[in-house]
Amino acid sequence: MIHNETHKSHRIGWLRAAVLGANDGIVSTASLIIGVAAAQAATGDILLAGMAGLVAGAMSMAAGEYVSVSSQADTENADLKLEKQHLKEHPEFELEELATIYRERGLDHDLARQVAASLTEYDALSAHARDELGILDTARAQPFQAAGYSAVTFSLGAALPLLAAYLAPQEQLIPLVASCALVFLAGLGVLAAKAGGASMLIGAVRVTFWGSLAMAITAGVGTLFGAAF
C-alpha cells in the first residue's frame, strides 16, 4: 500500500490568486459582452467593450491583489517584529506562553515545557510565529506573486469569452458566449479543485452557478437599458 504524503497547502498563495483571476476574467468579460450585446450593440462595439474590460480588469486585479496582500504582509511583519521584541525583553514569559499552547494541544506539563524549550533554543521566533500567531511559511503573503498571478490568469480567462464573441455569428452571440463561458468556468472549477485536493464536482458547480447568475443579471440590465435608449 502506497502512503501518499503529498499535501496541497503549499499551493494556497498562488492558487487563490490564480483561481480568483481566471474566474473573474471569464465571468466579468462574458457578462460585459452579453450585457452590451443584449443592448443591441454592433459586433465591433461588443468586441471593443470586451477588450477594454480585459485590459482594465487585469490591471485592476493586479493592483487590488497587490494592495490587499501587501496589507496582509504588513500585518504579519508588524506581528513578527513585536514578537521578536517580546522574546528579547521577556524570554521566560514567552517560553511559558509557548509551553501553555502545547499543553492545550494535549501534551503533559513537563513534555510541553521541554518541547517549548527545545524549539525556543532552535528558533524561537519561528516557533512563536507558527504556534502563537498562526503565521506559516507556506501561507505567507507575497504581494508581487499574487498580483502577477491575478493579472495573467484574469487575462487568460477574459480572452476565452472574447474569442467566443469574435467567432460567433451576431444572432447567436449571446447564447454561444454564455455557453462557452459556463464550460470554461466548469473546467476552471475542476482544475482548481484538483490542484487543491477538493471535490471536482463541487468546484465545477460552485463556479458555474455564480457565473450563470452574473451573466443572467447583466443580460437583464443590458436588455433594460437597450430598450430604454
Walk me through what this model shows.
With 229 residues, the chain is mainly alpha-helical. The chain has two domains: 10-73 and 142-228, no CATH class; 83-139, no CATH class. It is built from seven helices and no strands. The chain starts with 11 loop residues before the first helix and ends with a helix. The relative contact order is 0.19. The model is unreliable at 1-11 (pLDDT under 50).
Distance between the termini: 68 Å
Mean pLDDT rating: 84
Radius of gyration: 24 Å
The amount of beta strand, in percent, is under 5%
Number of DSSP helical runs: 7
Query: SS-based structural class?
Result: mainly alpha
What is the ordering of alpha helices and beta strands?
HHHHHHH
Provide the number of structural domains.
2
Shape: elongated
Short description:
The protein contains seven helices and no strands. By secondary structure, the protein is mainly alpha-helical.
